[in-house]
């Protein structure tokens, strides 16, 4: 479940700040002082960097689980 959460949050943070929907936000209408920061490319880049970090964590957890998985018995031929 943690892997799915990290992957979804990571992809969201990686992609969503660069869409046209990013500026249409309820929170921006409530706090207009934050608009300049919210629409700043550097701020969007920081959020995308956090997204990349979450995707990296998800894939590292997948590899960690795969490493500790019990191998299935293979068909060995004895002569």
Task: Explain what the structure shows.
The structure is a single chain. The protein has helices spanning 2-15, 26-30, 35-38, 41-67. It is mostly helical. The relative contact order is 0.18. The mean pLDDT is 89.
List keywords for this structure.
79 residues; mainly alpha
Structural class: mainly alpha
Average pLDDT number: 89
What is the number of domains? 1
Which oligomeric form is depicted? single chain
Characterize the main sheet: none
Radius of gyration: 21 Å
What is the straight-line distance between the termini?
Answer: 45 Å
Overall 3D geometry? rod-shaped
> How much beta, percentage-wise?
under 5%
| Helix share, percent | 55-70%
Total helical segments: 4
N to C succession of SSEs: HHHH
Q: Tally the beta strands.
A: 0
- pLDDT below 50 for ≥5 consecutive residues: which ranges? none
